[in-house]
Amino acid sequence: MSRFYLSFLAVFLVCLSVVSAATIEIKVGEGGLKFVDANHTVNKGDMILFTWVGTVNHSVMRSDAPAGSCMPATNLKGGANATISGPKMTGNASFVIDGLDQTIWYYCGVGQHCQNGMWGVLKLAGGSDTKASSANRISGGLSLGILMVVGAATFLF
Ligand SMILES: *[C@@H]1O[C@H](CO)[C@@H](O)[C@H](O)[C@H]1NC(C)=O
Ligand SMILES: *[C@@H]1O[C@H](CO)[C@@H](O)[C@H](O)[C@H]1NC(C)=O
Ligand SMILES: *[C@@H]1O[C@H](CO)[C@@H](O)[C@H](O)[C@H]1NC(C)=O
Ligand SMILES: *[C@@H]1O[C@H](CO)[C@@H](O)[C@H](O)[C@H]1NC(C)=O
Ligand SMILES: [Cu+2]
């Protein structure tokens, strides 16, 4: 193996190990008064994408602890807004994990939906992953790795 090949391989492996941002989709109102999946382990930079799939209005609000407290959060870190989306029936809403909170609690503020269990939890993790977001993260890491290898090759040759 040539030294060049080995250095590309090294760059590639380093890139693979870098945690890249993932998009985590949460379906709002799938199967009733639910977020699916409600709970995820997230990393800084991940985008949480809520997509409305139900047939009644739902909102997405951040709350303080404990999970399922069903009250808008007060004084979120970084001046974040407790309202991620007001009530609606279609479309989407998203926010990016800023890494300031170890745990983000969220719920639907429409009617008694939250009291009926329509809430979820996003936990910040350094390395570990949830099943739901690992596929996205790996493909993101792969494309980044490939991009950097192509970049290195262009530079060296
Ligand atoms: C989400 O996690 C909380 C604990 O943090 C747990 O009580 C709840 O049952 C979980 N919800 C789902 C839908 O798994
Ligand atoms: C929070 O977001 C809601 C809905 O997007 C908006 O109406 C409200 O003005 C915002 N509040 C602050 C303090 O930015
Ligand atoms: C759903 O939400 C929209 C936007 O806030 C509102 O205009 C509409 O009246 C709501 N529909 C119901 C059935 O509550
Ligand atoms: C989210 O909704 C906007 C319009 O409200 C649309 O332009 C955009 O494509 C949607 N994004 C996703 C990822 O569905
Ligand atoms: Cu709801």
UniProtKB/TrEMBL annotation:
<feature type="signal peptide">
    <location>
        <begin position="1"/>
        <end position="21"/>
    </location>
</feature>
<keyword id="KW-0732">Signal</keyword>
<dbReference type="InterPro" id="IPR008972">
    <property type="entry name" value="Cupredoxin"/>
</dbReference>
<keyword id="KW-1133">Transmembrane helix</keyword>
<feature type="transmembrane region" description="Helical">
    <location>
        <begin position="138"/>
        <end position="156"/>
    </location>
</feature>
<keyword id="KW-0472">Membrane</keyword>
<dbReference type="InterPro" id="IPR052953">
    <property type="entry name" value="Ser-rich/MCO-related"/>
</dbReference>
<keyword id="KW-0812">Transmembrane</keyword>
<protein>
    <submittedName>
        <fullName>Cupredoxin</fullName>
    </submittedName>
</protein>
